[in-house]
Amino acid sequence: MSRRRIIAGNWKMNKTPGEAVALCNELKDLVKNDAVDVVYCVPAIDIVPVVEAVKGTNVHVGAENFYIEDKGAFTGEISAPMLKEAGVEYVIIGHSERRDIFGENDILINQKVKKAFASGLTPIMCCGESLALRKAGTYKEWIARQIKWDLTDVTADQVKTLVIAYEPIWAIGTGETATADQAEEVCKMIREIIADLYDQATADAVRIQYGGSMNAGNAAELLSKPNIDGGLIGGASLKPDFGKIVNA
Q1: Which of 37, 89, 160, 241 has CB 3.0 to 4.6 Å from 216, enough for a Cys bridge?
Q2: What average pLDDT score do residues 95-114 get?
């Protein structure tokens, strides 16, 4: 089956609200492509102005994180209902920076995946291995474990609408990129894991992105692979080059 391509920008902790609106205006004509889902995942403070700035365009807005409770004494956090009302459609869950810097584990990530679905948000669920795991040759077992944990009690119908982002941690922001064959190997394996956990129809439906220094130069080759349905783009999402990736 043919899956609709999804190119999402992860802005990380970049762009003030004014800068965010300026970037949206700069990218507006460059990211036009009705055959691709284009998503800007932006810092919480940028969500409201960015939702306004992309109105009437083909761009969807995503958040970079949220907390599992709807409201309460969770200083500094933001909830799924807040995101939903603000116009957010997607949310990144389990990014390696959240796991490594902020100590998020697979139990919390699983709670976030379930909460996102319950709140009408589409998760962009991240998985991936460190350089040590890649060199040790145990990266496949690691990724399989992450996916099994993160999707505990998530239904097949939910998984069909899910986006999974494979991001080899050793290739994030380093300029190192997994070769197209390395990326395809893992994305194919992820699809096989979904088939084992659920069924082939679910595996055929789920969209799998590659994230890890995808740029205008390598996007076309990566996206030509049968199991790579898009990209989760870091640094390159803050530049006009993002348009080249969308249209690769």
Answers
A1: 241
A2: 97
- The residue written with tokens 């997607």 in the block is 90
Exposed e or buried b for every residue in 173-187, given b needs 16+ CB within 10 A?
Answer: eeeebbebebbbbbb
- Mean of pLDDT values over 231-238: 96
Sign of CA dihedral 117, 146, 78, 209: negative
Q: CA–CA distance from 232 to each of 39, 74, 165 (Å)?
A: 9, 28, 7
Distance (Å, whole) CA 177 – CA 95: 17
**CA-CA distances (angstroms) from residue 34 to 60, 117, 247?**
12, 25, 10
Please name each of the domains of the chain with its CATH number: 5-246 (3.20.20.70)
pLDDT digits (tens, 9 = 90+) for 18-55: 999 999 999 999 999 999 999 999 999 999 999 999 99
- What is the residue-averaged pLDDT of the chain? 96
Contact 70, 81 (CB under 8 A): yes
184 noted as active-site residue: no
Tokens representing residue 49 in the block: 């102005």
Q: Is the separation of the CB atoms in 51 and 87 below 8 Å?
A: yes
How far is it, in rounded angstroms, from Cα 47 to Cα 87?
A: 8
Which one is catalytic: 64, 129, 167, 184? Answer: 167
pLDDT tens profile 169-195: 988 777 777 899 999 999 999 999 999
The answer to whether residue 167 is catalytic is yes
Instruction: Give, in order, the Cα–Cα distances in Å from 194 to each of 38, 102, 147.
Output: 24, 27, 8
